[in-house]
Design goal:
Chain B: This is Hpt domain-containing protein. By secondary structure, chain A is α/β, with parallel strands linked by helices. Chain A is 24% helix and 34% strand. In chain A, the strands form four sheets. A five-stranded parallel beta sheet of chain A has the order 2-1-3-4-5. Chain A has a five-stranded antiparallel beta sheet with strand order 11-10-9-13-12. The chains are: A alpha/beta, B mainly alpha.
């Protein structure tokens, strides 16, 4: 069985990798520190089995399962036994291993997986409309366990709201569980600028600037003193 | 106070000394980072994130054979989720014991 390991903890990846070496029928193709990298990999590659951590920042194991089409057999690995009931609501989950995983319990899980007819994931071409993580002008956001594509140039404002950010586009607004820092890293620097600790704007969408505020669409956004010089530099001033 | 040990690591390595060393090196690299993030989130009073940090640290507590300490961490994690910090001192003592132990390896 070809398998991959998804866990944000390097220690856990090393342990599962080692446990796999003791099972001749298992071949570890790759391991990933987050689910999004694994999704990208599965778009191009076929696997029979996934060892999947549940607790991962931003994109949990369950988010991952809900996102991929035709998931292969999955063995969940977690420090939390409380998700067992939820886990067995998924046909693709063949076992649930609570960390620390012992070799005996690991072998039992592999036997279970081997007894179930392998249903390898289908590699998906980039043009098939299946899940992609990022490409050119697109940004994918996770909302209610769905990855939703947003056209980056259509974004005119991103606002921090506690543990969430609100992404405002020409057509629609999206509330996403993330931080301003994270989205700032994903947006092109030449188009977007952080003008306040709670706001990132699309510079191309500015209508006017007055004192310490910017009018962008119908939103009046404050400009912090420290960010004002950078904003002024970006303007094509006459 | 309960002391860490390498029983689990030895049992799952199957006698592979190179793997044991590799795993200990990974833990020695990852543990201080996880501990640092835990303290940062605690100082910031972001108890939900702190609970997630405790959740991650629990795995290393169990890998180092600290069974009773694991239960302490579980209770502390649940308290943090409820927004209270009961169990903090005990949990942070466990982190110190782990730190001291890892320094001897």
């Amino acid at each position: 069985m070809n398998c991959i390991i998804i866990d944000d903890e390097a220690t856990a990846r090393a342990i599962i990798g080692q446990l796999c070496t003791n099972v001749p029928s298992l071949k570890v193709l790759e391991d990933f520190p987050n689910a999004l990298q694994a999704i990208k990999y599965l778009n191009q590659n076929e696997v029979d089995l996934i060892f999947l951590d549940i607790h991962m920042p931003d994109f949990t194991g369950f988010d991952f399962i809900d996102t991929i089409k035709n998931p292969p057999n999955i063995i969940l690995t977690t420090s939390d036994p409380n998700f067992a009931i939820q886990a067995f609501g998924y046909d693709c989950i063949v076992d649930y291993l609570v960390k620390p995983i012992t070799p005996e319990r690991f072998q039992k899980a592999i036997d279970k997986a081997a007894a179930i007819k392998p249903k390898a994931s289908e590699p998906k071409s980039k043009t098939s409309g299946q899940v992609e993580t990022s490409s050119g002008n697109d940004l994918y956001v996770n909302i209610d366990r769905r990855l939703i594509k947003i056209d980056i140039p259509s974004i005119y404002l991103v606002e921090a709201k506690g543990d969430y950010i609100q992404v405002k586009t020409d057509d629609k607004n999206y509330t996403v569980h993330s931080t301003l820092k994270k989205i700032e890293e994903k947006l092109p620097n030449d188009l977007f600028l952080k003008i306040h600790r709670s706001y990132i704007i699309n510079v191309d969408k500015i209508i006017d600037i007055e004192d310490n505020s910017v009018l962008i669409k119908k939103d009046v956004i404050p400009v912090s003193r420290s960010n004002r010089p950078e904003l002024m530099k970006r303007l094509n001033l006459l | 106070m309960e002391q860490p040990n390498l029983s689990y690591i030895n049992s799952m390595s199957g006698g592979d000394k190179a793997f044991e060393k590799k795993l200990i090196d990974i833990i020695k690299g990852e543990f201080p980072e996880e501990k640092k993030v835990y303290f940062q989130n605690f100082e910031a009073k972001n108890y939900q994130l702190t609970a997630e940090n405790v959740h991650k640290l629990k795995h290393k507590i169990s890998i180092l054979g600290l069974e009773k300490s694991y239960d302490v961490a579980v209770n502390y994690e649940n308290n943090l989720i409820d927004g209270n910090t009961d169990g903090r001192i005990e949990f942070e003592s466990i982190l110190q014991i782990m730190t001291d132990f890892l320094e001897t390896l």
